[in-house]
Hints:
Blueprint: E1 8-19, E2 22-33, E3 36-41, H1 48-55, E4 63-68, E5 71-72, H2 78-83, E6 84-87, H3 98-108, H4 113-126, H5 142-155, E7 160-164, H6 172-189, E8 192-197, H7 200-206, E9 209-214, E10 217-222, H8 224-229, H9 234-239, E11 244-254, E12 257-262, E13 267-271, E14 279-284, E15 290-292, E16 303-315, E17 318-325, E18 328-335, H10 336-342, E19 349-354, E20 360-363
Parallel strand pairs: 3-8, 3-9, 6-7, 7-8
Antiparallel strand pairs: 1-2, 1-4, 4-5, 9-10, 11-12, 11-14, 12-13, 14-20, 15-19, 16-17, 16-19, 17-18
Helix pairs in contact: 3-4, 3-5, 4-5
Amino acid sequence: MxxxxxxxxxxxxxxxxxxxxxxxxxxxxxEVRTGExxxxxxxxxxxxxxxxxxxxxLEAPDHGKVVYIxxxxxxxxxxxxxxxxxxxxxPYLWRGTVAQNVEFGLKTRRVPADERRAxxxxxxxTMDIADLEDAPVDGLSGGEAQRVxxxxxxxxxxxxxxxxxxxxxLDVTVRRRLLADLERIVRHAAPAIVLITHDPxxxxxxxxxxxxxxxxxxxxxxxPADIFEAPATEFVASxxxxxxxxxxxxxxxxxxTMMVRLDSGQLLEAxxxxxxxxxxxxxxxxxxxxxxxxxxxxxxxxxxxxxxLARLHPQGGLVRLRLESDGLNLEAVIxxxxxxxxxxxxxxxxxxxxxxxxxxxxxx
Length: 364
């Protein structure tokens, strides 16, 4: 949200949480700022949900503190609980109609009846389920139930909205529609939003800042562009799409670029400044590998490999390719149209091109 003033609304400082003697959360610092969407991104078991439960005062940390508007909070802090709303991966709906569920939080906050009706109606319309107002919740589909849970959260006009994997349990079509609606409404839903997700695409689409979690720790925080273009660790690179790693040794370093001799013998030029002689891992995303005919003219890509197409694997509108180049295996993703235009078949000779900035190098 460019131009917005980002003030810390909720903070976690030196947080630790243990389950059965095992460290589940070990976070030195985290800020939830006014005017932005913060995504907690990581695989299952990374500690995302536990961290949110601590931040939301649903669980007390074993060490450290949570600060809400400059004041340290305790578990079940009444002021923070009233200021926050949550939408879970598997929403719990009470018996009754859709409208009664959406109205629940307003009743507990003793909002007058006329205002309750207006806010319920507005929330239902925002989530495009106004026609379900009088429907019993036990007949709803999974996508409809999730929309009711979102409407219920929006109706109380929270200061902080926690979204815990809101699309994870939905089928592909329903998930796509709900994600599109979240993109439309999320920045108007609350002054601050915390999104928990294991999906980098979801985090990058919705968040202003992303905090990547690994084994209970935050290993990198930054804008989606920061995380995608300059991953701080091999884990971050791999988790956000640099799914293939090549082993090598740095031969030379000059003006922010390195020459890396791969174990397969090829020489790569990559951005970064690891020391000469260092063993490294080089990560790349298959969509950053450009395929061209062997006689194609020179391009700005400094890494050029003569290769042979070894395998084709269709994936909907895309095709994944396995390329072999003198002992080096590369993976690439192209569109079906590109496959046809290049007339690619098993055994076809091609050139694989990779830009220096598309490679991510990490010390072993």
